[in-house]
Amino acid sequence: MTFGVDRFRFVPLGLKSLERLRPEMERRRDDLTELRTAVEASALFYTAMKQEALNPGDVVAVELAEPDSGLASEKRVTVYLAD
To answer: CA 62 → CA 59, 78, 80, distances in Å?
Structure first.
């Protein structure tokens, strides 16, 4: 999939949220590893995270949404992180 990013938003998850998510994260360990690897391999994601001094290894989930501009080729990206 090829797309541009209209905006990145980074959301650190608190301890309580992470505790609730832990069973699902364990169940999807391979998927989570694949997601983190993809984020590190993407120059777009990696650069955005590096500019914010964030570690790709802390990624818990990524949400892609349509931007306010309505262009299908651009996305708003929300990255959820272990705090």
So the answer is: 8, 6, 6
Q: Which domain holds residue 9?
A: 4-82
* Count: domains in the chain: 1
pTM: 0.81
Q: Which residues contact 27 (CB under 8 A, 6 or more apart)?
A: none
Quick one: DSSP state of residue 14?
P
Separation between Cα atoms, residue 13 and residue 37, nearest integer Å: 20
Average pLDDT over residues 1-12: 79
CA distances from 18 to 28, 74, 77 (A): 14, 29, 20
User: pLDDT tens digit string along 23-72?
Assistant: 999 999 999 999 999 999 988 899 999 999 999 999 999 988 876 656 56
